[in-house]
Design brief:
The protein is mainly α. The chain has one domain. The protein contains six helices and two strands, in the order ββαααααα. A two-stranded antiparallel sheet has the order 1-2. The chain starts with 6 loop residues before the first strand and ends with a helix.
Length: 186
């Protein structure tokens, strides 16, 4: 790569001033912001066709953009970023799993979908904090292990709560029980 001079943007050091690297970082940040926002909107929207599925689709493709640009950035600085590549790959695989579970209506698909998509969001946020937490206000006061653990520590209980309390999951369970009961009575 060209120049290896570190530059700082909004308090976050960028480890290269190479124009190609900076261009990829710029696109990566845009995809990342889109994924964070659309993922949150999808999570907080009423489930089903419409707002949830539309924002979920935008989240998925934004995450794909994050994955592609992260792959390029990691290949340019592999020794420093291989762990970010691993996190990005895990995040995208989780999203693919969650999306496929819903689209193909696998057994227990609501739980599989929310687990896959929720895990993809948690891992994406983890990667952000692992890479940038040491430069962010308040976060820079935390030990490095917090960047790895806090997103999952906050997100996993939310996923578990949804597993047992979300109306879509409960309605799914009730409808399966009703089907099983009707076949038993025949």
């Amino acid at each position: 790569m060209g120049s290896e001079t570190t530059i700082t943007v909004l308090g976050i050091p960028i480890p290269s001033s190479d124009p190609v690297f900076l261009a990829v970082v710029g696109v990566h940040v845009l995809f990342g912001l889109a994924a964070v926002i659309t993922g949150a909107v999808a999570m907080l929207s009423q489930k089903g066709r419409g707002r949830h599925s539309n924002f979920g689709m935008i989240y998925f493709w934004s995450l794909f953009g994050v994955f592609v640009t992260m792959s390029a950035l990691s290949s340019m600085r592999w020794a420093e970023n291989y762990h970010l590549f691993a996190l990005g790959a895990v995040s995208f695989v989780c999203a693919c799993f969650g999306r496929t579970a819903a689209r193909r209506r696998w057994c227990q698909w609501p739980r599989l979908h929310l687990t896959g998509m929720g895990a993809s969001y948690i891992v994406m946020i983890t990667a952000f904090y692992v890479d940038n937490g040491k430069n962010l206000p308040l976060w820079k006061e935390l030990p490095d292990i917090a960047f790895w653990v806090l997103p999952g520590g906050i997100g996993a209980p939310i996923i578990l709560y949804a597993w047992f309390r979300h109306p879509l999951v409960l309605d799914f369970d009730r409808s399966r029980a009703a089907i099983a009961e009707s076949t038993d009575s025949d």
